[in-house]
């Protein structure tokens, strides 16, 4: 389950980065704005699936909760976009929170080896 979660976390991070690209080009191309709008739904469902995978795989609870945090932040994005006006600046800041949370999920999900795997020992070998 950890490999599945890690794959989904990597996909989520790439999707969120793509979301920023679509947002920045959306002012110039209507098709980019439509992609930005559609990706918002993907960003909602991927971390929701991640939370289910993490819970089913008995992964650390923080992975479940941060996945659900991304779902909540994405829901907040919709509310901010609908309100518009002076709240629009929060849309970008909230997007950065989603980006940071997605990056944290990938970093935390990646399997860890032994603390000194691949390193030579610091001790001096006997002669």
Concise description?
The chain is an all-alpha fold and 127 residues long. The chain has one domain (2-109).
Written overview of the protein:
With 127 residues, the protein is mainly alpha-helical. It has one domain. Helices cover 76% and strands 0% of the residues. The chain is built from 4 helices and no strands. Helix 1 runs antiparallel to helix 4, helix 2 packs antiparallel against helix 3 and helix 3 runs antiparallel to helix 4.
Strand content: under 5%
Count of DSSP-assigned helices? 4
Terminal CA distance reads 46 Å
Number of domains: 1
What coarse outline follows from CA principal-axis ratios? elongated
Question: Could you estimate the helical fraction of the residues in percent?
Answer: over 70%
H/E topology pattern: HHHH
Instruction: Please state the CA-atom Rg, rounded to the nearest Å.
Output: 19 Å
Q: Which regions contain 5 or more consecutive residues with pLDDT less than 50?
A: none
Number of strands: 0
The average pLDDT score comes to 85
Structural class: mainly alpha
What composes the largest sheet?
none
